[in-house]
Amino acid sequence: MKLPALAMVFMILLFSGCSSVVQKTPFATDKSLLTKALSGELILGRAYKNDELPNVDLFGLTPEMRQFAETVTTSAKRKEAKAEALHQALMTSRTHGGRGITYTAYITNTGIDAFEQRQANCLSYTLLFVSMARHLGLNAEVNEVMLPPTWDMRDSDTYLFMRHVNAKVFMPRKHMFSWVRVTETADVGDIVVDLEMRRFRPHYKQKVIGADLVAAQFYSNRGMELSAEGDARAAFLYLRKALLMSAEPSYIWSNFGSFYRRQKMFAEAEAIYLHGLAINPRDYTIMHNLAGLYLELGNTAKHKEYQQRVRQHRNANPYYMFKLAEEFAQRNEDDKALDLLRKSIKKEKDEVRFYKLAAEIYERTGDSENAKLMRDKIYQLDTIRF
Questions:
Q1: What is the pTM of this model?
Q2: Contact in structure between 316 and 22 (CB atoms under 8 Å)
Q3: How far, in Å, CA of 115 to CA of 92, rounded?
Q4: Architecture of domain 63-209 in CATH?
Q5: I want to staple 219 with a disulfide (CB 3.0 to 4.6 A). Which of 191, 241, 260, 314 is the partner?
Q6: pLDDT tens digits, 242-277
């Protein structure tokens, strides 16, 4: 299994997690172009009809799915045991008696399709697990997680921005506080069930999202897949349905703009991107997309303007500094690497990878005292706290 499949995946330039770059003037968009783009007339030759829009039962269950969920959890008495048994049964290979769900990056399935085809990305698996868990009487919801960006240091401007979801099962409260745990640990607290559990960290920014936003992510994700397949008509209908389900997230508009850009309808793409930035002036994915759009249009000034914004943002990102530190460490430029790691840790205190690299450098250079401090911090972060 490689990367967890994503509710949205972008191969983008110069984007990261937090920044001090602020837009001083409002982003202005051409509302007539936006209205035309939303109507679908440029894609369909006329305005879309409501009955043409997709209507998918995201949390549907078949009789076979209900029976499977009940059978594999028969011996589990407690709610947390049921959640774990269900997850293990879905992920265990068919040769060992499980369903054998495997990861695929190529399609966003419904829960039913994921079960039948035995393939899922993170959103599909979450839909599958949540629907079956609810059938078992568990209080399960879709949990959105912001994973750290990953840079390809062969091209320092390139990385994957991942919008990831998993399932969260709420347990009855025995105490006033709450915490997040993985399925393999103690029988207390809320449970997070992830398609690729080893990548999940409790300190990642996350929140439970409602059915409308889940649907918006599904339709948007599927729309982009259809666009990549060259089916512009179906892609538009899915993307339009996504915006009808939730027009608040700027990343939905980013996908919609990228769809029009793929169709070479640049004026509409620009209007959509700018509308997305009006919703979220810190959406650096859209800024990257605009920089690329203006480059295609030959607008050098605008290209440089947006490129500079995202570069400033990237340079201030702790995960970008960490990747640079890795490069310095590989060249034995330890002082430079440690300086960047100190800055990274100051911005993101709970990222284990920062401390691991620092510990390796301190051990290699004979600084046993600081190496021990780093190892102690790693132990604290890797230990479940009650």
A1: 0.80
A2: no
A3: 13
A4: Roll (3.10)
A5: 241
A6: 999 999 999 999 999 999 999 999 999 999 999 999
